[in-house]
Amino acid sequence: MAILMLLLKIKIMTSAVVYMLNLATADVLFVAVLPFYIVYRFSGNNWQIGEGMCRFAIAAFYCNMYCSILIMTSMSVDRYMAVVFPIHSRSWCTKKAAWLICAFIWLVSIASTVPLLLNKQTFYSRSLNITTCHDVQELKDLQNFYIFYFTAFSSIFFFLPLVITIFSYIQIVRTLSKSKENRRNSAKKKRAIVLTIITLSMFIICFGPTNIIHLINFLHLPMRHTAALYFSYVLSACIGSISSCLDPFIYYYSSSMCRKYFNGLVCCKMSNKVQIKNLLQTNKESSTESA
After folding, report:
1. pTM value?
2. N or C: which end of the chain has fewer CB within 10 A?
3. In sequence order, which residues have a C-beta less than 8 Å from that of residue 18 and are 6 or more positions away?
């Protein structure tokens, strides 16, 4: 629905709309493989649909996560340039530049998941009689590859974008606070604060636990992995899917055109409900008078 709205209803394609369109596309990729995760978890973490599908589902999960993080970071920098440097941003923050940045983000995100597609992800446990998908790995793979892979991933694709996003939104709020206080600037400041809270909540609540647990897991390889750590990993992976539910709020607070369309849609529905209610009331009164 978000993609259709951005393509068909939003007539002016700005850089913000380009970022939101790509963010919605990343969510569609994640939603496409979400049913397989649901079946996997409710089957007692027993993957029954093959090695190839396991690799694709895992690659899609991490591609969505890091693609979403990079796109949201790009959106924060785009808004930072528009608010702090409004004159220069007209030549820098263009629709063409946004498409090039999103294309680069997709290439980087897809390329970074290629190792997950090439390496075995399923592991059969004889004691439990289940086949896990990515949850359990061979110790030699953990020591030789994944410790460097996920450490670099978490550092480059999570912690660095988090710092950039925090800096951008702090500067946005500070700039709007210094500007002359009027109704329009006050509304912009409130939206910027709400957008900051939503974005940082997604970083900290949705993406933070998964990346932090990966670091704890791979930096303490000699230690025995406890059931509590595994449960935390599974829970954090599930919580990460909440980001797809919070993205519509980013669309709403990032674009005035999205707000106008959404408000018009809601007002139209409310108007129709009022008309139907009035019509029913009129029919009821007419039938009462006839009786």
Report:
1. 0.78
2. C
3. 95, 98, 99, 102
What is residue 241's DSSP assignment? G
The amino acid that residue 206 corresponds to is C
Helix (H) or strand (E) holding 130: strand 130-133
Q: From CA 283, how far away is CA 280, in angstroms rounded?
A: 5
Query: 95-112 and 15-42 helices cross at what angle (nearest 10)?
Result: 30
The residues near 148 (Cβ < 8 Å, ≥ 6 apart) are: none
Q: How far is CA 181 from CA 143, 177, 193, in A?
A: 56, 8, 15
Count other C-beta atoms under 10 Å from residue 143's C-beta: 14
Q: How many residues does the chain have?
A: 291
Provide the 10 A C-beta neighbour count for residue 182.
9
Which tokens hold the place of 225?
Answer: 């992995």
Measured CA to CA, the distance from residue 136 to residue 234 in angstroms comes to 12
Phi first, then psi: what are they for 5, rounded to 5°? -65, -45
Residues of the chain with pLDDT below 50 are 222, 274, 279-280, 282, 285-286, 288-289, 291
pLDDT tens-digit readout, 227-237: 677 777 778 87
* Residue 162 near residue 87, CB atoms below 8 Å: no
| Other Cβ atoms closer than 10 A to 108 | 16
